[in-house]
Design a protein that fits this description.
Elements: H1 3-31, H2 34-43, H3 45-59, H4 68-92, H5 105-111, H6 118-141, H7 150-174, H8 176-179, H9 188-195, H10 197-206, H11 218-227, E1 241-247, E2 260-261, H12 267-275, E3 277-282, H13 290-299, H14 325-330, E4 335-340, H15 349-355, E5 360-362, H16 382-392, E6 398-403, E7 424-425, H17 432-457, E8 463-469, E9 489-496, E10 507-508, H18 512-520, H19 526-533, H20 539-553, E11 572-573, E12 579-586, E13 589-595, E14 601-605, E15 608-610, E16 612-616, E17 619-622, E18 647-653, E19 659-662, E20 666-667
Parallel strand pairs: 1-6, 1-8, 3-10, 4-5, 4-6, 5-11
Antiparallel strand pairs: 2-7, 3-9, 8-9, 12-13, 13-17, 14-15, 14-18, 16-17, 18-19, 18-20
Length: about 675
């Protein structure tokens, strides 16, 4: 066989047959069935070819390298890894793997202990080690071709790449089936099923942010501003405290067809639904993606106007301030607080909440008396005390945003610890234990709701409590399994203690806060007034909202006369600050005394962390003995609090040793140790 024939055979194997095989394997993993992958290829050949062309284009990069076979193999391994990761992710959540998940690696690692056993972790590291060794061996074994006509070979490679790029562009422009892939999915899982993993994943890489509207201009924004009545001066007669609670994976489980229970799992929530304003809430995600619902709730913006599967918390809001309910209420004298019984750094909330205008953020690192559920998540009973603390600490009206975590997945292979567990009847085969665990978790969440309502009812101040679910749980539900609504609908209820009129209606998550403020009589903020005054059924409603979102986050701020009206807040961690008072010698040893200590507190002395044990909110026992140094404290020199010589400081750190806040510093000579 001649050299030319060998090249042709190599080209066919590497750049035609291999991409087809790779896409079949990837789609088989995406659909959890090899037969479904072949069915997809036969039912939608044009879309299948389009996905194959994308793989071909990535493999064609190898033609520029002398170790062509190795590069082809390496890129193929990457695609296979993406398919495997997608397969694994689909077992833990409903939404598939996309490019944005790379920005969530730290968050994923922090919660991996709730999903993976020690054996799973060991096997993952073992598999990674085997893969790395295999790649190294492959690199050494694959031939390094001597290309005599290098210039000619590069020209040929470039021609192939250009042909592939042209083919992809032509197919995308000419095929209605390819064009049918919307810029923003209403259901990302269905999009991956319909258009293929490779196409959707590639689209998620390049599609970020909000695309500039075609008619975006200073004049168009002036038109929106003119259409919205400016009634900022109309302050409400009553400024109630407003509490919004985002309930993790919470929805009315009684809406699932055929499934029944030994008793009502949500008696308090159902009672509130009968007596107060409520309805279905359309959320942007299912099974996971809590912060995208959270983003819509707090900003009044639609997450679907952003890139494919994008998390604004991990992109634009990391560095950009935004209009939000916090910033709008601040103009009326409100202070804003966030309470979350999970780690502060999850989804970067400890940074993002500043850009959203929160004054304080009480995460699990600032809570005591935490109990864990069988899945290792903090139980929600602690939320009642912490929410009430935010309402009692300030004289001005308060907005408190609570985020629960107890009913977070996983649900399989976990047994409930309920003293009197609710029994589940007619659960889907193989899901009996998952349903039992989930139902008893949300029953405990419902008990927390009952206690919170009872405590708020005792308050003399007018108060509003808004409860809603962030998304449905990962229980392999489908629309057909539900009596009412869809996979993208949870429920909300608006309780109050001062006689607001009952108003039942279905809402989008990004409409909820403006509706609540409208019922109160608050009309502060452009997005707030836009939702309140624009017909939600009008075609121009969503177009105008998208223009507002682009203008505020990516545009020229024409809506506010090209000024940025929002500044990042000086976010304080914890409702009450750490207060270091003294360090004493006792019969038990050296004890650090102060206020608001938690198990996440660490004691530093002279730049060194001391081994310590948390006793209670006022005491920490030192296991190390601090040794005074000869260094002098220079008042004219700037120091990090934990680096000032001969001083004690208490820091709050999360589980990954990220410093969240610190106390006042206490010099050695001002402690009881000096006496």
């Amino acid at each position: 066989m001649g050299e030319k024939q060998l090249r042709i055979k190599k080209f066919i194997c590497f750049y035609i047959f291999l991409p087809v095989l790779l896409d079949l394997v990837i789609e088989g993993l995406n659909r959890k069935s090899v037969f479904s992958a072949f069915a997809y290829m036969l039912d939608k050949p044009f879309l299948f070819i389009f996905n194959v062309l994308i793989i071909m284009l990535t493999l064609s990069v190898a033609m520029y390298f002398r170790r062509e076979i190795f590069v082809v193999a390496l890129i193929s391994i990457v695609w296979l890894l993406f398919g495997i990761v997608n397969y694994v992710i689909l077992h833990f959540r409903v939404t598939p793997f996309s490019a944005v998940d790379f920005t969530l690696i730290s968050s994923a690692i922090s919660v991996s202990g709730h999903y993976l056993t020690a054996f799973n972790v060991v096997m993952i590291f073992f598999a990674i080690a085997i893969m790395v060794i295999s790649i190294i061996c492959l690199f050494k074994k694959t031939p390094c071709f001597q290309k005599n006509a290098t210039k000619r070979a590069y020209m040929l490679s470039t021609m192939v790449v250009l042909i592939l790029v042209s083919g992809i562009i032509i197919m995308h422009k000419s095929s209605t089936s390819v064009q049918a892939l919307a810029e923003n999915y209403t259901n990302i899982s269905e999009a991956y099923e319909n258009y293929g993993f490779v196409y959707c994943f590639a689209n998620s890489i390049i599609d970020t942010g909000i695309k500039k509207p075609e008619d975006y201009s200073e004049e168009s924004m002036a038109g929106i501003r003119k259409s919205v009545k400016d009634n900022e001066s109309d302050e409400p007669d009553v400024k109630p405290d407003i509490v919004m609670i985002q309930l993790e994976s919470f929805f009315d489980i009684c809406d699932v067809k055929k499934v029944s229970f030994s008793r009502d799992p949500l008696p308090n929530f159902h009672k509130l639904q009968k007596e107060y304003s409520n309805g279905q809430l359309t959320v942007p995600t299912v099974g996971a993606g809590t912060v995208n619902t959270e983003f819509e709730i707090l900003t009044g913006m639609s997450q679907h106007d952003f890139g494919v599967s994008e998390y604004p918390y991990k992109t634009v809001l990391k560095s950009k301030t935004s209009e939000s309910i916090c910033n709008d209420l601040a103009k009326l004298g409100y202070s804003s607080h966030a309470v979350h019984n999970n780690t502060a750094t999850f989804y970067g909330r400890n940074k993002v909440f500043s850009n959203l205008g929160f004054d304080t953020f009480t995460s699990v690192e600032y809570m005591n008396n935490i109990t864990l559920n069988p899945n290792g998540w903090a139980k929600d009973d602690v939320m009642v005390k912490e929410i009430l603390k935010t309402l009692d600490i300030a004289k001005e009206p308060d907005f408190t945003f609570g985020i629960t975590v107890q009913s977070h997945g996983k649900y399989n292979d976990v047994k409930t610890d309920a003293a009197d567990p609710i029994k589940v009847y007619n659960a889907p085969e193989g899901k009996e234990d998952s349903y039992t665990y989930y139902v008893n978790e949300i029953n405990e969440v419902d008990q927390m709701i009952g206690r919170l309502v009872n405590e708020l009812s005792k308050r003399k101040r007018p108060t509003i409590l808004v409860l809603y679910g962030d998304h449905l749980p990962s229980l392999d539900l489908t629309d057909d399994d539900l009596n009412d609504g869809s996979l993208y609908e949870t429920q909300y209820v608006i309780w109050n203690n001062y006689g607001l009129k009952v108003k039942d209606q279905d809402l989008k998550a990004y409409q909820l806060y403006s509706e609540v403020l409208d019922q109160v009589g608050i009309h502060e903020g452009m997005i707030t007034r836009y939702h309140q005054q624009t017909d939600h059924k009008s075609k121009k409603y969503k177009e105008g909202l998208r223009s507002l979102e682009y203008d505020l986050l990516y545009g020229e701020n024409y809506i506010y006369d090209q000024e940025i009206p929002f500044e990042a807040s000086d976010l304080k961690m914890g409702t009450k600050p750490l207060n270091l008072k003294d360090v004493q010698r006792t019969k038990d040893g050296i004890v650090v005394c102060g206020e608001n200590f938690t198990p996440y507190c660490k004691v530093w002395f002279d730049g060194k962390e001391l081994d310590s044990e948390w006793i209670d909110e006022n005491h920490i026992l030192l296991k190390d003995t601090p040794e005074r140094s000869d260094k002098e404290y220079d008042k004219d020199k700037a120091y990090e609090p934990d680096r000032v010589p001969n001083t004690f400081v208490v820091e709050v750190q999360n589980g990954d040793s990220v410093k969240l806040s610190y106390s006042n510093i206490l010099r050695w000579k001002n402690t009881s140790l000096n006496k």
